[in-house]
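Researcher: Quick test of sequence recovery. C-alpha cells follow.
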C-alpha cells in the first residue's frame, strides 16, 4: 500500500527534524553558558560607542573627508541593523552548528556546567559593559606588570592555545575590509580595487598586529581572571589546551569571524546603497 512508505517518510522527517531542533537547543545552551550570547548582545552598543567617539574626535580635529551629519546618522542606522543582537545570535547559532561536532559540544557543555566553568563565564561577562571595558583598559597593564612569572606563564599558554593574537588580527582585517567592500559594491562610484589595497596594507602589518594583540589578550586575561587561584587558572588552561578545548575555540573563532564579517559586509552595503545626493542636500 502506498500509505506505508508515506508514513515511513513522515516518521523519518519527524525524527531528523526533532534531532536538529535538539541540537540547536544545545547550541543555544552552549552560547549562553559560554558567554557568547551576552557578548553578541553587546556588539551593537560597542560599535555605536566607537562611532560616537570617532565623531567627537572628528569634531575636535576636522578633516576634509569626515562624514557629514547625514552620513554619520546613516552609518549608525546601518550599524544598528547589521549588528542587532538577535541577528548576530541567529547567525552564530547557524555557524556553530556547522563548525562544532556534537561530541565536542557535549564535552564543552560539561566543562561550562562545572562550578569553575560557570565562574569563569561570569567573570568574562562582567567585563562586557562599556564602563567595565574602560576600567579594564586603564588597569590591565598595571595588573600584568605585577604578575609573578608563574602566573604570567599560564596566561601566555592560554593566549597561545587559542591563538589570541592571530584570531584577533583576522577579525580586525576581515571586518574592516568587509565594511569597505560592502560600501564599494553598493555605491554608484565605489572602488573595489581600493578594498584590495586596504587588505594588502593591513596584511603587511599582520605580524605587528598579531604580536600586539596577543600581548593585549594576555593583559585582558590577567585583569579578568584575577579572582581565580593558581590551581583554578591551571585547570582552565588545561581545558583550553585539551583536544576538545582547542577544537571548541577554533570553531567559535571561525564562526564569530564569519558572523562579524558578514554583518560588516551588510552594514557597508546598507550604508553605501543610499544616493550621495541625500548627503549633499543635508
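Model:
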Amino acid at each position: 500500500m502506498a500509505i506505508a512508505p508515506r508514513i515511513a517518510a513522515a516518521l523519518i522527517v519527524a525524527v531528523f527534524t526533532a534531532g536538529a531542533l535538539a541540537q540547536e537547543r544545545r547550541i543555544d545552551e552552549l552560547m549562553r553558558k559560554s558567554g557568547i550570547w551576552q557578548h553578541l548582545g553587546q556588539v551593537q552598543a560597542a560599535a555605536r560607542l566607537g562611532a560616537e567617539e570617532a565623531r567627537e574626535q572628528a569634531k575636535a580635529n576636522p578633516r576634509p573627508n569626515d562624514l557629514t551629519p547625514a552620513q554619520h546618522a546613516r552609518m549608525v542606522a546601518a550599524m544598528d541593523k547589521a549588528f542587532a543582537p538577535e541577528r548576530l545570535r541567529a547567525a552564530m547559532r547557524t555557524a556553530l552548528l556547522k563548525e562544532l561536532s556534537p561530541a565536542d559540544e557535549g564535552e564543552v557543555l560539561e566543562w561550562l556546567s562545572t562550578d569553575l566553568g560557570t565562574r569563569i563565564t561570569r567573570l568574562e561577562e562582567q567585563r562586557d559593559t562599556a564602563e567595565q571595558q574602560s576600567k579594564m583598559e586603564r588597569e590591565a597593564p598595571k595588573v600584568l606588570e605585577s604578575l609573578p612569572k608563574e602566573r604570567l606563564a599560564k596566561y601566555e599558554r592560554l593566549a597561545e592555545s587559542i591563538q589570541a593574537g592571530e584570531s584577533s588580527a583576522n577579525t580586525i582585517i576581515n571586518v574592516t575590509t568587509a565594511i569597505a567592500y560592502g560600501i564599494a559594491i553598493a555605491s554608484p562610484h565605489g572602488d573595489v580595487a581600493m578594498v584590495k589595497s586596504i587588505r594588502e596594507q593591513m596584511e603587511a602589518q599582520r605580524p605587528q598586529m598579531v604580536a600586539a594583540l596577543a600581548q593585549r589578550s594576555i593583559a585582558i586575561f590577567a585583569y579578568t581572571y584575577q579572582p581565580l587561584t593558581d590551581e583554578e587558572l591551571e585547570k582552565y588552561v588545561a581545558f583550553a589546551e585539551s583536544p576538545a578545548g582547542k577544537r571548541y575555540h577554533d570553531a567559535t573563532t571561525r564562526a564569530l569571524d564569519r558572523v562579524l564579517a558578514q554583518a560588516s559586509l551588510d552594514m557597508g552595503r546598507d550604508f553605501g546603497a543610499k544616493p550621495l545626493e541625500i548627503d549633499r542636500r543635508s
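The chain is about 85% helix and 0% strand.
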